[in-house]
Fold this protein.
Amino acid sequence: MASHYVVRDVDRADPAVIAALRDAGVATAHEAAGRIGLLGPSIQARQAGSAIAGSAITVTCHPGDNLMIHAAVEVCRPGDVLVVTTTSPSTDGMFGDLLATSLLARGVIGLVSDAGVRDIASLRGMDFPVWSRAVHAQGTVKASPGSVNVPVVAAGQLVRPGDIVIADDDGVCVLPASRGPEVAAAAAKRIANEAEKREKLAAGTLGVDMYNLRPLLADLGVEYVDRLPDDGRA
Amino acid sequence: MASHYVVRDVDRADPAVIAALRDAGVATAHEAAGRIGLLGPSIQARQAGSAIAGSAITVTCHPGDNLMIHAAVEVCRPGDVLVVTTTSPSTDGMFGDLLATSLLARGVIGLVSDAGVRDIASLRGMDFPVWSRAVHAQGTVKASPGSVNVPVVAAGQLVRPGDIVIADDDGVCVLPASRGPEVAAAAAKRIANEAEKREKLAAGTLGVDMYNLRPLLADLGVEYVDRLPDDGRA
Amino acid sequence: MASHYVVRDVDRADPAVIAALRDAGVATAHEAAGRIGLLGPSIQARQAGSAIAGSAITVTCHPGDNLMIHAAVEVCRPGDVLVVTTTSPSTDGMFGDLLATSLLARGVIGLVSDAGVRDIASLRGMDFPVWSRAVHAQGTVKASPGSVNVPVVAAGQLVRPGDIVIADDDGVCVLPASRGPEVAAAAAKRIANEAEKREKLAAGTLGVDMYNLRPLLADLGVEYVDRLPDDGRA
Amino acid sequence: MASHYVVRDVDRADPAVIAALRDAGVATAHEAAGRIGLLGPSIQARQAGSAIAGSAITVTCHPGDNLMIHAAVEVCRPGDVLVVTTTSPSTDGMFGDLLATSLLARGVIGLVSDAGVRDIASLRGMDFPVWSRAVHAQGTVKASPGSVNVPVVAAGQLVRPGDIVIADDDGVCVLPASRGPEVAAAAAKRIANEAEKREKLAAGTLGVDMYNLRPLLADLGVEYVDRLPDDGRA
Amino acid sequence: MASHYVVRDVDRADPAVIAALRDAGVATAHEAAGRIGLLGPSIQARQAGSAIAGSAITVTCHPGDNLMIHAAVEVCRPGDVLVVTTTSPSTDGMFGDLLATSLLARGVIGLVSDAGVRDIASLRGMDFPVWSRAVHAQGTVKASPGSVNVPVVAAGQLVRPGDIVIADDDGVCVLPASRGPEVAAAAAKRIANEAEKREKLAAGTLGVDMYNLRPLLADLGVEYVDRLPDDGRA
Amino acid sequence: MASHYVVRDVDRADPAVIAALRDAGVATAHEAAGRIGLLGPSIQARQAGSAIAGSAITVTCHPGDNLMIHAAVEVCRPGDVLVVTTTSPSTDGMFGDLLATSLLARGVIGLVSDAGVRDIASLRGMDFPVWSRAVHAQGTVKASPGSVNVPVVAAGQLVRPGDIVIADDDGVCVLPASRGPEVAAAAAKRIANEAEKREKLAAGTLGVDMYNLRPLLADLGVEYVDRLPDDGRA
């Protein structure tokens, strides 16, 4: 028999670490962590310019049923990010402005959903940022069980309760809370390093020189020619 | 033999009812009607912040052919919404700023298309809102017959001529004109009801209490625990 | 054995012709050229309101590997547009703000990619427009060879080095440089012609009359009726 | 309020007409009817070589819930085809060998589903043919209402209770029962006509001659040349 | 920094339990486990009639790179099933008959891949069953690191090394090894139970009676009528 | 102005070379050519066990219009393969058993189509193999111009008239005729080489040893461990 749980306690990462990762952004945090943790591009930002990071409260629902989102609100704390999945693919609008109002009252800072959201104009007006698979108004029921704060898979990525969720215009990245400090430190180095690189590139230095790629290109047999020698077939 | 018609007369709903449903919006009207009428999420708003409602003038075209859109203009009246479909899937840009100019001259307030639109920057500049499956510039011909004002299927939803079309950032919903007054009344009640709910939720009341979901959760066997008891497999 | 080349020299079209095609825009240039050259709608504008035209510098990469983009920078000149493809489908974020900085330093005016981009907020802030299949932060390696300035296929369309690339909110169109002057002239005529048509349509003239479509509709057997005669099956 | 019905009585077409349309097959019936009635290619035959026709018993279910399929069995009669849809997109395996056993006991001859099926090896072994959007084992609940024998949309096509459903390796086509005799007659003519054409084509006659297409090709400006005159850009 | 591992030791489930689950099949095992563990329908059987179960050896590769599959062979044992994923979506043909030969030599009984396979005619001839996202011949390189026997996500489902993998014509299901005995027992009960149900249904008993669904239908407001009372809008 | 051509003369490759490449098969020819020429996996074999190679006769059609396929038959010769594309995406059934009969009369050995086919049961019965994007019965018109024997793009791959088309259960690969002899020779070597490898692998030699991959794995930092050292996050 399947068991359904609402797990109340979640270990959350240090707020300072979370803030540092939010400022680093999705792309930098993902790289700093060794290219892990990205949700697939099917989950997209549904507003422009929002950048958040927080602790994951995870939810798994029956498709077309948002009962467990309601159950999840109670265990949320300020700074959390709600991560919603369904047991089979769905684009239903299982989240809208009423749930956002409720989450804002708990201090939740955003939603990541592998299904649909609705009332998107209101959500934008409320400054409650969402990342979702779809915008769709399809109504849902409250009839089937699911779980809160169990490991889930969203857009092809495992998300555990308490994971650090970073989301911005590039999408969504999750990291184990335990790796937060190390990744935040690596991200800070990377940012400094990139500033320097950016300056060089802006001044006209080529990446093939800056990264010393010419020997690799030669090793791989890439030939430099003035004109394409043959029939030009790609 | 298939027959092709341009049907001139369409029974339209009461403008006051239509206006009430526009103000209610797609999500509320869909719910007030008993969760019917939504077009699928493949048809998306191609601008932000537009909200319209009007009577459906329906068009069915051969793929890659916009002849029947031209034929449809003549039967449009102020306040109508053009709903375009193709007999097989297409993303061609069969609608652009010239057709929008022509429709605006007839008082048409927007387009819903299960194919592509082009000149999207101009359409946004003209304040002519469109909901479509794609933005694509692919040119089309005028060579094959189709029909105007016959029942069509757009994004998985049946649309009849004269149906009330409601469209906003959440997508598109259609309703039979005959159900308009009843749905508008139900939507008004729902809006009042939601205002009250919103206030409670903003004040910290939980949805599980407001909707009395705790007994249901218990009946469904959802257990509240402090920590996940087993290996945490979702 | 497959050969990998970086081709240094590309014949570019006349800048005045390129500018004329940029001003004409994607939809008009595509029509003026005889409805050719459009990339499929899977490649979309990732900002609103940008309109560019330039000479194609083409790149083909191994999926998940952006080595050849780095190699391509060196052969770019002011006014060029980088066109990136992969040897099999990919949505990885193989292009971000560092590469954009480097391209801006070379005078490159935009990117068309059949894969993903990242740092999208920064790219928008830098006014470096991109058209791509995805926004995704997935990091890539620099390990496998590819080519620069060979013919490639992007979103189902053949693109040759030196092709004129036109990109705006409607998508992307490419034309052989040799056809540029003829297409620019045809586009100018079309624009004049459309201004006249637009005025007529705005004044209430119907397209079926302006394009003389009534005889065609009759020939195709389209019947005008006041009411649908049968069971209304579309 | 949405209403949910199980409609007991359905007007069925003449069995001789249905049999004639089954023998004609999907492609011929679709053409004979004037190119109407086809379900989209997302619904595919899940076995090879089955060809059926029968009267549609329609079902609409909540996604992830097969309650209404159980309710539908009772109103089925020998020769019927069950047509299952969901109120929002789903690939769940809401139909398997137990339901097939029950339908076979009622004389039902096949299933068309806009969702998933499971136990596919058993279904093949039982000679119960299915056309579906997916094969997937995902289990479903019995918790939400729906309707039996109301009009539904399956794979983009309106299906009414009692419609003639024709299904074979090419897919699925539906026709209003009232049009059955006329379409069966047209199909018979078409089959005779095609036999004659097939003989001519097999003997080497060209379609361009048999259909007299050369004047059309000339009118459309298609030029016959020995070699491609320009740079060969398609 | 990301770390890449080849983990040698995996705890495997009891062969008798695995065999029982293979005989139960994907749909029954998934239900017996409480409707968990299914991989999405994007991973399909690439042959008909194969049914296997074994212990998961997991692999994660860079897209377009099959280096780590070669590394995985060494840690496989008789009865294992190889589960291959990529760090971003790929349909490349990273597995073919040479790798199958190598796996057969190790006693591996099948492949589940979230990417592509090739040499499919040979694989069928060798009786080496595969479940994959695609059949595609695209060649791959051996240049980037990955891991063997770490948790992976395949078609939206978490798979851990040593999980019991069950695969047949319905798709693929995975279960934690620790739950094997309990699920096998539940499956045996379910099979017995279904045999009884099948007999009743074959004899004409209705599911609505056998499952006692009539009270539920009444509670949910489903009305039984002889004819559809209104305009028949679904 | 777009021009439309039927090009009569096509340079075909040596039949012995074509036969050698057919026997090598898609995967081997693609590898022997340096991993080029593959059509994407959206074009699939619509029968099992067919393997062909021939010279490409290319066709480009308006979507929903098969006029140009009829025009193409005349320029086909024994041993040719017809390659059909549309100017925008289409799944319409523009090819069926009558056209196959006509092509068989000309000695054409198969069809590759980036659109749909119908009469699939008949095509299988006639032993006329097809590779297509879809099986769909949707009827098409004969109204719009296109071209025969110009370069086209099918499933993301450039195909030129006279290219060698190789198709089997793995999909479709195209090669320039000029490269045929060299690729056939390389394929022969590869086949001999693979036979030897197959024997070694069947005898238990590991690929990591046969390809000498252990140093590469070490260089890339892949660690061999008995147990996963950390939290096992993939």
Summary: The CA atoms of residues 45 and 65 of chain E lie 23 Å apart. The mean pLDDT of chain E is 96. The two ends of chain E are 55 Å apart (CA to CA).
